[in-house]
Specification:
24 helices, single chain, 997 residues, alpha+beta, six-stranded antiparallel sheet
């Protein structure tokens, strides 16, 4: 990672925009950031940290005062940083949250935190992300370091050097945990502790389960009185199990005895049931014999009444044979009376009409007269109808002529207003002439708004895939860290066992391949846990696989971020709600334009219709004038025809008002005449029918059992009543016959038996006793079987649970020992947790890297070494640091070093930590490094050694920036960046020639 350019505006002590060109120091490789105390030297590094991570180390846990107090309310606050990472050049722009004046009105409003990330493609800058959260996600992938790691490997901030060197064991553990992400191992310990508690709880639960099962079994056996006499101790589980098994055997014997008793009782019940059934059948037959005797007696008593009903039924049947003759005579008598009444009524109606004819000859003559009148009226009726039609034609023709004349006048009045209406429509159409162009513009705006809305919705849908890619990238990073730690651990173990492997090949008298000596008095012991080449190769392969997965996850995250950023850019940086509102406004404008176009089209159609209607009206006026003339001519012709028809009608109607009235009167009289003649003829016929029916009736009565017609009518019965009488007679005969037959059968069967029914009491009592014995025996058997089943189940469950306790106890012991060891408890004599053990391996590597520089800076006097000695009073241990003084050969705590020595040791440790953290972060190349303060505590010689170590950092094109007040460094480092405070307090940055002047 290499920094190129930094811009600060309204940030910290800088009010106006300040520019730092880091590329200008590339040739020197190392440059000095100098200035008076409080001028803002560290604020330059704060700007770098804020641009990349959105935070500043000096404000951790406090108020974030990033905006310059020297800014006017209208001045912006912005940090711009250009850098290269992974052969790609990036530019990040950030603005913190601050108060600014409102654009409209008075007062202030909050300007939100803004961020933007761009990439340079060789020609121009292209936007990648435009929201702080998206920018942070991309920078996490691009930089590959957290803020804490960045402050340890690139920006070694003020007052942070000695923190790691002088920290307590727990403080150092917290820092290393943040840098190396080893909280997973702490979670492993928590999981194992939970497994230990679960295993112990399971062991206690299983033991309690066995005791509960045994107690329940003993209670059941004691209640059933099958428990052995001896009483084993509560803790003697096997003896208690054996006692329960013997109790189950006794319960099984009792169950078999109870089953035998139940079978005996069931055999006795079968005999009692058979005897009771025989007694019940005998008693039933005796009861039936008594009932049949009583029934025959009742039937004999009912015989006279049945015979009388049989006689009534016989007379009813004889009367039924005469029913047709009687009813025919009655019906003929009724018809003759009705016909005589009808003839009398016709005679009265004929006389009431003023008619005097009564003899047949007079009636025939009157009928001929009426026929002649009706014929004359029929001819005159057609003329009367034509007369009415002719009069209507006169009226219609006159009305049509008048209507046509009025229509001509109205049409002339309407056409007079048409020119003014046409002019008004032409004016309106001219005002709407631009409506089609306005509609096209509105549709284009709506299309653009919908495109931005769709892009905003797409950006919203891409948030979840982006978060998923972020989570996968984090998981792959953790997996890579674990694989790297495992590979490093194997290498360290292999290195630790190298001396033992070498000692194994030494032979007395032959030279050592290391020192050349032929005597080998103190050889190293071989390692208890050797590491094979295959294991190292597997670990390396796993590390490479994890690295490939991490790169693929990072690539997927980059693609997801790019897709989301592109969608945000297409949406113009606005959200779905704002774009939806823009769409609604554009759609409303489009609808209004379409409504104007529709109005113009409607007015054009209305004008065309009005013009066409005017032309049609002109043509119609001529037709109306012709129609009026034709109406007057038709009215004159219809008047002449009406006069001729009226003369014919007046001659035919006589004294009546109309011909139809005279015709109706003639038809009424002819109907009265016909009714008179028809009723007289019908009366004669009805009298003849009555005479024949009466003679037939009298003949049938003479041949029957009845004296007269009234006696025959009295014997008649309805069909339903006759059927009921027949059913009663037949039922009596059938019942008497059936009773006699059944009684004969029973008398033969019960010939030797007493008359009264047998007593069922003794056999029923015997049956009840047998049933009670069976019920009691079945209950005893069920109870014995239930006790046996319960005891066997409890015994088997208790025995199985007791056998399973041994496996649970062994597993609990293994899990407990492992959990205690990982948590730093006994048998772990070092009191080191699993996480501490992993961090100790990392710390050893850090110390090894730091000693490479500390040896040069301290002229070979000091070396750092890792200490896993036990801390006092049970404190956490395993991450201690000691300083080995080669002058005394003794190890001493870091707190015993002087100020300059502490700075050197801290610098060497910080640089070593930077190298290790960089390697753990995927081998990131660090082309820019900053060191803030600390050189003032060194003497000239030590400063020279420190400068020499810093000078080595320039190798490979690295640029190192140093913040210091030391005058010697100003002389040694010509490339400088000067921060000066102005008269009003705001600071400026001078670089290159500006510093020299």
């Amino acid at each position: 990672m290499k920094l190129h350019r930094l811009e600060l505006a309204g940030f910290g002590p800088f009010r106006d925009r300040q520019v730092v060109d880091f590329d200008a120091f590339a040739d020197d490789g190392i440059f000095l950031i100098s200035g008076r105390t409080g001028a803002g030297k560290s604020s330059v590094l704060d700007g770098v940290c804020y641009a990349l991570f959105g935070g500043v180390p000096r404000y951790d846990g406090g108020e974030r005062r990033l905006r310059s107090d020297h800014c006017d309310p209208e001045d912006p606050t912005q940090v711009v940083l250009e850098f290269t990472a992974g052969e790609r050049r990036w530019r990040v722009t950030r603005s913190p949250e601050y108060e600014r004046p409102k654009l409209r009105g008075g007062g202030f409003t909050t300007e939100p935190h803004r961020a933007m990330l761009e990439e340079f493609d060789g020609v121009e800058w292209t936007g990648v992300a435009a929201r702080p959260v998206d920018v942070a996600a991309h920078l996490d992938e691009i930089v590959g370091l957290t803020q804490q790691q960045f402050l340890q490997v690139i920006l070694l901030a003020q007052n942070r050097f000695a923190r790691f060197l002088l920290a307590r064991n727990d403080e150092r553990q917290a820092l290393l945990r943040t840098l190396f992400g080893t909280r997973t191992y702490e979670q492993y310990a928590e999981i194992l502790e939970g497994m230990r508690k679960d295993a112990e709880a399971a062991l206690l639960s299983e033991g309690e389960n066995v005791r509960m099962l045994l107690e329940e079994a003993e209670r059941v056996a004691r209640d059933a009185d099958v428990l052995p006499v001896e009483d084993p101790a509560p803790a003697d589980i096997p003896a208690r199990l054996s006692a329960v098994v013997r109790a189950a055997e006794r319960a099984a014997y009792r169950a078999e005895v109870a089953a035998q008793e139940q079978r005996t009782a069931e055999t006795g019940l079968d005999g009692a049931l058979e005897r009771e059934r025989d007694a019940r059948e005998l008693a039933e037959r005796q009861r039936q014999r008594l009932e049949l005797r009583e029934r025959l007696a009742r039937l004999t008593e009912d015989a006279p009444a049945v015979d009388a009903e049989r006689e009534v039924l016989a007379r009813a049947r004889a009367g039924e044979e005469l029913r047709a003759a009687l009813e025919a005579a009655d019906r003929a008598e009724r018809d003759a009376a009705v016909s005589a009444e009808r003839a009398a009524a016709a005679t009265v109606a004929w006389a009431a009409a003023g008619e005097t004819a009564s003899t047949p000859a007079q009636l025939r003559s009157r009928e001929d007269e009426l026929a002649a009148v009706l014929a004359a009226c029929a001819d005159a009726l057609a003329a009367e109808t034509e007369l009415a039609e002719a009069e209507r034609e006169v009226e219609q023709a006159a009305a049509a002529a008048a209507d046509a004349e009025r229509a001509v006048a109205a049409l002339d009045a309407q056409r007079a207003a048409v020119p003014a209406l046409l002019r008004d429509l032409d004016d309106k159409l001219e005002a709407l002439a631009a409506a089609p162009a306005e509609r096209a513009t509105a549709e284009a705006r709506l299309t653009e708004a919908e495109r931005r809305r769709d892009a905003a919705r797409e950006a919203e849908t891409l948030v979840d895939p982006l978060r998923a890619a972020e989570r996968r990238a984090v998981a792959c990073g953790i997996a890579l860290a674990e694989a790297t730690a495992h590979h490093t651990s194997l290498l360290q173990r292999r290195l630790a066992s190298a001396a033992g492997d070498l000692a194994a090949g030494l032979v007395q008298g032959e030279p050592c391949p290391v020192c050349g000596g032929t005597e080998h008095p103190h050889t190293a012991s071989p390692s208890d846990e050797p590491v094979s080449d295959a294991a190292i190769e597997d670990a390396a392969l796993a590390k490479e696989t994890a690295l490939a997965e991490d790169r693929r996850a990072a690539e997927a995250l980059r693609d997801a971020g790019a897709a989301h950023a592109a969608a945000v850019a297409r949406a113009g940086g606005t959200g779905p709600e704002e774009t939806e509102a823009d769409c609604d406004a554009a759609r409303a404008a489009r609808d209004a334009a379409e409504e104007r176009v529709a109005t113009a089209e409607r007015l054009a159609a209305e004008r065309a219709g009005l013009a066409a209607a005017d032309a049609d009206a002109a043509a119609g006026r001529e037709a109306l004038v012709a129609e009026a003339a034709q109406g007057r001519q038709d009215a004159a012709l219809a008047t002449q025809r009406a006069h001729a028809l009226r003369a014919r009608v007046d001659g035919a109607r006589g004294d009546a008002a109309t011909v139809a009235e005279r015709r109706d009167d003639a038809e009424r009289r002819r109907e009265l005449l016909r009714a008179l003649t028809d009723s007289a003829a019908d009366s004669v016929v009805r009298a003849e029918v009555l005479s024949g029916a009466a003679a037939h009736r009298d003949e049938r009565l003479a041949a029957s059992i009845f004296d007269d017609a009234d006696a025959a009518r009295a014997a008649l019965r309805p069909a339903g009543e006759r059927a009921a009488m027949e059913d009663r007679v037949r039922a009596h005969d059938d019942a008497e016959r059936s009773a006699r037959q059944r009684l004969l059968e029973l008398e033969l069967v019960l010939v030797d038996q007493p008359e009264q029914p047998a007593d069922l009491g003794p056999v029923q009592a015997e049956l009840a006793h047998a049933r009670a014995r069976v019920t009691a025996a079945a209950a005893a058997t069920a109870e014995a079987n239930a006790i046996l089943t319960r005891l066997r189940d409890l015994a088997e469950r208790a025995d199985a649970a007791h056998r399973a306790i041994a496996d649970t106890a062994a597993r609990a012991a293994v899990v407990g020992r492992l959990a205690h060891t990982v948590a730093g408890r006994a048998p772990n004599t070092r009191r080191m947790t699993l996480e501490t053990f992993v961090l100790a391996a990392e710390l050893e590597e850090i110390v090894a890297a730091a000693n490479l520089r500390l040896a040069d800076m301290s002229a070979g006097r000091y070396r750092l070494q890792h200490s896993d000695a036990l801390a006092a009073r049970g404190a956490a241990s395993g991450l201690g640091l000691e300083v080995l003084d080669s002058y005394t050969g003794q190890a001493r705590p870091p707190q015993s070093l002087s100020g300059g020595e502490t700075f050197l040791a801290s610098l060497a440790l910080a640089l070593g930590l930077a190298e290790v953290v960089t390697a753990r972060a995927g081998g990131i190349r660090l082309d820019t490094l900053f060191i803030d303060e600390g050189f003032g505590s060194l003497d000239d010689d030590t400063l020279e050694l420190a400068m020499r170590a810093l000078d080595e950092l320039r190798q490979g094109g690295r640029t190192v920036g140093v913040i210091s007040h030391v005058a010697a460094m100003k002389e040694q480092l010509p490339a400088q960046l000067l921060v000066e405070a102005g008269p009003q307090g705001a600071s400026v940055i001078r670089q290159g020639a500006a510093v020299g002047s």
